[in-house]
Amino acid sequence: MVDRLVNSEANARRVHNVEQCFGSSGQPLGIPGRVLVGEGVLTKICRKRAKPRQFFLFNDALVYGNIIIHKKKYNKQHILALEDVKLENVNDDGNLRNGWKIINPKKSFVVYAATATEKKEWMAHIRKCVEDLLTQRGVSRSCSTDSPVWVPDSEAKNCMHCSKSEFSMVNRRHHCRHCGIVACNSCTSKRWLLPEQSTKPIRVCLTCYQKLSSQASQNNVTRKYSMNAGGDDRVSSGEDSSDDEDDATPAKQGETSEAEQLAIHDAHFHSYD
Ligand SMILES: [Zn+2]
Ligand SMILES: [Zn+2]
Predict the structure, then answer these.
(1) Which ligand does the CA of 163 lie closest to?
(2) CA 8 to CA 17: how far, in whole Å?
(3) 249 or 97: whose pLDDT is higher?
(4) Is 194 exposed, middle or buried (0-12, 13-18, 19+ CB in 10 A)?
(5) What is d(CA 206, CA 190) in angstroms, rounded to the nearest whole number?
(6) Is residue 239 very low, low, confident or very high in pLDDT (cuts 50, 70, 90)?
(7) Backbone angles phi, psi at 72, to 5 degrees
(8) DSSP character for 106?
(9) Which of 43, 60, 136, 182 has its CB 3.0 to 4.6 Å from that of 112, i.e. a possible disulfide?
(10) Ligand nearest to the CA of 186
(11) Do 24 and 72 have their domain in common?
(12) Is residue 216 part of a domain?
């Protein structure tokens, strides 16, 4: 199906259109051989709450962004290389239905589709694209390190490491970049270099720190990549404010913007094959 679209004018138009919608906030998307396979709105679980995001499935990448005007304007573009993407089912839980994990080295997360059928379609299409891509490139999956899905803030009243420390305005929540738990500052005082996520050592919990340290010593790797947060303010200052760029423009809790409502209204996965 995808083969038929590779050099088609319709495909070129659609790819160009996606690029236009992101405008200067996005990367050029029209690369030779790239096909837009499908698109639709999925609800993405961010650090604070669930938000609709426009997703575009290309034959080599999954692209998503915030919806400013549905079908017209998007920003905050993220591009995930499909060869690094893995999917994992998430079971229905109360109101949270039709979800799955999108696991990748940079930042894994959970998305929800509007219906079970749509979930099935999305997952099948993504998996097919990943498979085709890996076959085509003749590579087995790269053994890069996947990032954890972050536990949403609302799910932790207490530190998930020491279970004693209670969160408040002064005792802020932090996420371990290796396992994704929410923990207090002292339980995440260590830093470790996770090259897939950052060029600098980043926040990890004490359990992960120990695990990573012992792995490193087993592999006879020097500990030059680890450090204590206390010594270097540059590493810790303001770091968590950029934890989840999706929250950069906060809306009041419970408030749904017009764009978001429109998006929810017309959320269905649309495939081009
Ligand atoms: Zn703690
Ligand atoms: Zn951890």
Answers:
(1) 1
(2) 14
(3) 97
(4) buried
(5) 7
(6) very low
(7) -125, -45
(8) S
(9) 43
(10) 1
(11) yes
(12) yes
Amino acid in the structure at residue 127: R
**Is the residue at 250 inside a domain?**
no
Q: Between these two residues, 121 and 138, which has the higher pLDDT value?
A: 121
What confidence tens digit (pLDDT) does each residue in 51-61 have?
A: 999 999 999 99
Structural domain that includes position 163: 153-225
For 166-209, how does the pLDDT look when each residue is reduced to its tens digit (9 = 90+)?
A: 999 999 999 999 999 999 999 999 999 999 899 999 999 999 99
**How many residues are given for the chain?**
273
Q: Which ligand is nearest to the CA of 181?
A: 2
Give yes or no for residue 89 having a pLDDT over 60: yes
Looking at residue 120, its pLDDT comes to 96
- φ, ψ for residue 151, nearest 5 deg: -70, 125
Hey, is 236 helix, strand or coil? Answer: helix
Establish if 142 belongs to a structural domain. Answer: yes
What is the whole-number distance in angstroms between the Cα of residue 190 and the centre of ligand 1?
12
221 in the same domain as 172: yes
Instruction: Please say whether the beta carbons of 191 and 220 come within 8 A.
Output: no
259 and 221 together in one domain: no
The closest ligand to the CA of 209 turns out to be 2
Percentage of the chain with pLDDT > 70?
A: 80
Residues 6 or more apart whose CB falls under 8 angstroms from that of 70 comprise 41, 54, 259, 262, 263, 266
CA of residue 167 to ligand 1 center, whole Å: 9
Query: Does 15 or 144 have the greater pLDDT score?
Result: 15
127 C-alpha vs ligand 2 centroid, how far in Å?
28
What single letter denotes the amino acid at residue 236?
S
Is pLDDT at 66 greater than 60 in this prediction? Answer: yes
Buried/exposed code over 18-30 (b: 16+ C-beta within 10 A; e: otherwise): bbebbeeebeebe
Residues with CB under 5 A from ligand 1 (ion): 159, 161-162, 165, 184, 187
